[in-house]
Amino acid sequence: MKIIIIILATFFSSVVFAQELITKHNFENIQYVEDIEWYGDEIYCSGYTFNTKINDGNATDAYLIRYDKNLSPLWTLKISEEHTNIVYSFKRHKNKIYALVTQGNVKPLEQDVFISLFIISLDGKIEDRVNLGKTFHSPSNIEFVGDDLVFGNKVSDGVSYASNSLSEIIKYDIKTKKVSRHKSSKYMARPKKIIVDKSNIFLFGIYLHKKQPNILAYINGKYSEISLNVSKEEYFLDSYIDNNILTVVCLFPGTYHDKEQYLKIYSYNIVDKSIKSKKMSYAELDWSDQKFDTFTTSEGSWLIMQNNTTKELNFELFNKDLKRIKTIKYDSNNGNGNWDRFIFKNGYLLNANTYGIMLYKMISSK
After folding, report:
1. With contact defined as beta carbons under 8 Å apart, do 87 and 80 qualify?
2. Is the pTM of this model over 0.90?
3. Using one digit for the tens of pLDDT, what is the confidence trace for 254-280?
4. Cα(356)–Cα(341) distance, integer angstroms
5. CA dist list (Å): 149 to 91, 131, 183, 213, 331
6. What is the C-alpha separation between 154 and 159, in angstroms, rounded?
7. Higher-pLDDT residue of 178, 364
8. DSSP class per residue in 196-223
9. Interval 82-130: pLDDT, tens
10. Are 359 and 23 in contact (CB under 8 A)?
11. CA–CA distances in Å: residue 340 to residues 32, 67, 213, 347, 358
């Protein structure tokens, strides 16, 4: 049955949408969603559960599920060969699915884990598995540059959370199976997102730290580390590149000692290396809270925020000039905004969280 959710609100000059819940599927095994992908009529979702045979509170089993366009499951792949198994990211490429699976042993305050690259057929069969070495925590998303699968990884000199660590860009040639990697010269926050533009590669961590690299990059084949000259420790949200301008979206949510709260965009010119920035306060945006999951489109970045006046959650689309151009209400009957993976595509919204996987149609209401 279709459910209509009507949104009546105004947010500056943004276009406001209603949404229609087309279909939903509840998860049988997944407790936490890590990644979703949407290719034509093919929809994929990965996640994990602590409900395992070991059942020690740390062990996890990983799942990758393929759905049709109506969100009916076509197959489910379970990965449970190690104590801990989590499919953090995957990508469909040339009729194969490439999945990064963190595997090993996890204890309170310790991780003794490695990354496995699973190569999976479109009918859910594991065709190959490549051990890509030690890791710590979670890798970034996957991108391709020609035959090179690229992603960001974090490596540590120990297994405890207090161990020293560095970030790195890993390249895996899917034809020759050659692995190459380049580590950061100093500490950088855990990798969150990697983006590519032709042969250029940019890796971002979950934070933008002062006096430390904020971006690991290959520009025209040359490795570099870029600092955005941040004045505070800001949270990285999203990034994209257009016409040699690298846009970095971040926020500062306030701390006990610093009550300032803002959304900020950096514009980095990869040719002349100039940096521009613009920010808006939570008060100007009428925000009371900001979530950390995002989705990039050709228009800009979709964010999830809580409106200060209504106290409701909304998806909001901001362009590179920090202008809010679209708003759609978050469906609080099917989520709380704290752990979402979502895609906006051709007037539809695909969202997955602990409540299940949902497909909505966007309807203009203004």
Report:
1. no
2. yes
3. 998 999 999 999 999 999 999 999 999
4. 11
5. 10, 14, 17, 23, 35
6. 12
7. 178
8. EETTEEEEEESEE-TTS-SEEEEETTEE
9. 999 999 999 999 999 999 999 999 988 888 999 999 999 999 999 999 9
10. yes
11. 9, 18, 28, 19, 11
61-89 pLDDT tens trace: 999 999 999 999 999 999 999 999 999 99
Work out the pLDDT band at 13, boundaries 50, 70, 90: low
In this prediction, residue 80 carries a pLDDT of: 96
DSSP, collapsed to helix, strand or coil, labels residue 333 as: helix
Q: Which two tokens stand for residue 165?
A: 């660590």
Q: What percent of the chain has pLDDT over 90?
A: 89
**Residue (of 268, 225, 231) closest to 252 by Cα position:** 231
Structure tokens at 96: 């194969």
Maximum separation of any 2 CA atoms in the chain, in Å: 56
CA distance 23 to 358: 6
> Who's near 352: CB < 8 A, 6+ residues apart?
33, 36, 45, 47, 340, 341, 342, 358
Whether residue 103 contacts residue 130, with contact meaning beta carbons closer than 8 Å, is answered with no
What are 134's two structure tokens? 């030690």
